[in-house]
Amino acid sequence: xxxxxxxxxxxxxxxxxxxxxxxxxxxxxxxxxxxxxxxxxxxxxxxxxxxxxxxxxxxxxxxxxxxxxxxxxxxxxxxxxxxxxxxxxxxxxxxxxxxxxxxxxxxxxxxxxxxxxxxxxxxxxxxxxxxxxxxxxxxxxxxxxxxxxxxxxxxxxxxxxxxxxxxxxxxxxxxxxxxxxxxxxxxxxxxxxxxxxxxxxxxxxxxxxxxxxxxxxxxxxxxxxxxxxxxxxxxxxxxxxxxxxxxxxxxxxxxxxxxxxxxxxxxxxxxxxxxxxxxxxxxxxxxxxxxxxxxxxxxxxxxxxxxxxxxxxxxxxxxxxxxxxxxxxxxxxxxxxxxxxxxxxxxxxxxxxxxxxxxxxxxxxxxxxxxxxxxx
Length: 376
Prior knowledge:
By secondary structure, the chain is α+β, with helices and mostly antiparallel strands. The chain has helices spanning about 20-50, 105-110, 145-150, 165-170, 180-215, 230-240, 250-255, 265-280, 285-305, 320-345, 365-375, and strands spanning about 5-10, 55-60, 75, 80-85, 85-95, 100-105, 110-115, 120, 125-130, 135-140, 150-155, 160-165, 175. It starts with 6 loop residues before the first strand and ends with a helix.
C-alpha cells in the first residue's frame, strides 16, 4: 500500500503508543463533528456572503477518510467551500471551554515563509471555523487575524510551535448562537456511542485473559479447533494484539466469509466483523477477492440493522443483557462503516454508499445514546 503524499506519518498525535483501533477511534471523534457541522457551516457562509450559491464539502468528497491505514494525519484542509464558484479551504477547530490561556493554531495552516524575504506571511483563500461547545458559539476568521493577534510559541501538548491567540481576545469575537445547541448535542451523543462500543475490545481481552488463566488455576483446556468461528476469532484477536499478520491473510478472508449465514447472533456478527476488519487492514485485495468482501460488508450491515429493537436497543439472544447486545451491534456498525469508507477510498468500488455521517446506520442515535446513559 503506497503512502498518501498528503499524509503526515508517525506523529506524536497519531498512532504511536496506540493500537490501530484506538487510533481510528480518536480520529473518528473529529470526523463525527465535521460531518455533523457541515450544514450549519454552509448556512453561516450563506449569511456572510449573502448568497445561496454556497456548497460545503469534506475534503476528498465521497472518498473522505477519517483515518489513514498506515497511521498518520492528512495535510488537507477539513472542508472545501464553493462560494459563487470560488473555492475556499476551511479549517475546523472545536471543543469545550476548559479555561485554557490560549487558542492554538498550527503554524503551517496559518502562515508560510516568503522565500524572498524569509518572513512568514498569512495564508490567503483559507478560513478557520471555530466552535465553542459550552456557549455554544462560533467564529469564522481569516489566517491574517490569527497571525496579527496570536503569539508564536511552543505548545507543550503538541511538542511543536503554533500561533497562540489569548483566550480573552478570542472570546471577544465568538458569536453566541443557540442554533448550534442541537448540533453539539448530536455530536456529544455520537461520541458517547463511540466510547461505549470501543469498550468491547476490553471486554474481549478480559474474557480471553480469564480463559487462559483457567488453564493454570483450574487445569482446564483452551481449545482452538478448525472450522469454528469462536476459534477463528480467538486466533485473529491474539494475532492482532501481538501485532502479527497471518502468512495467508488473503486466503483467511475468503475462509472467514463462509461463516456468514442466516440467524447469526449479534455476538457472532461482531466476531466476524472484527476478524474481517483485522484481516482486511493487513492485505491488498486482489480482483477476485474485492467483490465478495464488498458483498460481505453489505450483508453484515443489513444483518446487524435487522436486530434493532425499541428504545434504541438491539437484541438477538437472551444469553446477554440488552446493554451487551447493543454494544455488539454498535461495535459491528462502527467497524463496518470504517470498512465501507476504506473500500471506497482505496478500491474502485461503486456498490457501496459513502458514509455521509458517522453512525447513520444506527436506527436512532438519540434513543440509543439515552439507553446507554440509563443502563451503563
